[in-house]
Amino acid sequence: MTEQxxxxxxxxxxxxxxxxxxxxxxxxxxxGFMGSRHDFDQLISALPGxxxxxxxxxxxxxxxxxxxxxRFTMANQIADLQAILIAxxxxxxxxxxxxxxxxxxxxxxxxxxxxxxxxxxxxATAGLPTAADRVARRQADAAKAAYIRQDFPSFVxxxxxxxxxxxxxxxxxxxxxxxxxxxxxxxxxxxxxSLIGMGTGAQPNFWPKLAEVTVKTLLIVGEKDVxxxxxxxxxxQQLPNAQKAVIADAGHNVHFEQPNQxxxxxxxxxxx
Length: 272
Prior knowledge:
This protein has 272 residues and is α/β, with parallel strands linked by helices. The chain is 41% helix and 19% strand. The chain has 10 helices and 8 strands. The chain has helices at residues 41-44, 74-87, 100-111, 131-150, 152-160, 173-184, 188-198, 226-238, 254-257, 259-271; strands at 2-8, 11-19, 26-30, 50-54, 93-98, 116-122, 217-222, 242-247. α2 crosses α3 (100-111) and α4 packs across α5. The longest helix is centred in the middle third of the chain and has 20 residues, at 131-150. The radius of gyration is 17 Å and the shape is globular. 43% of the residues are buried.
């Protein structure tokens, strides 16, 4: 694996670049909230072709502080991804996003369908369908941002205890500690700004756009994640060219809990 820095619009994006085989497959991997490109370390060397995993704006152990919340908006981050692909001279890519990264991946596919070879959304949503829901979420995220700024370690502990991540308590202790350490290494101000600028309540409602996403799409969910199984079923009904993969014995963070099953699904996805 090669660690690189790509400067985009004044921000130094940390990336991992890996050439695995001579196939034409190119992968763009987008992590979730409080994650980093290292979330995908177990996947990067196993995928065919060439892989690019990115620390998204404001995240990762070496991220500089991002002072303007506007920098975190979905539109700005989509523009950054486009600039990164131009920097690597990549035209057609398999875009794989987890949770927050899945929302960004979907937004990118809607904005730049010509650059997407296929789309993989893990534990993702198309947003909140009503204005009232989005207002309520923005208010909730503003409260979380205040909590982050006041006592970040306490926020991380509370975040780890939400039902969405209950299945991770069954993982080996070293894996749980690895995930906790990654979260604690984030810059609290960046985490707060990301929630406000890039939270589900702040992003556009993509549900009306799903019918336009004609690219081959794979929806990955863990069998224990009831909420996102339901969301995946709703998205499956509206996406013209999608399949759903339910991963056994996994919750929300499927690739972290069951990397081998996810790798097998990704390989099958690009070979069909």
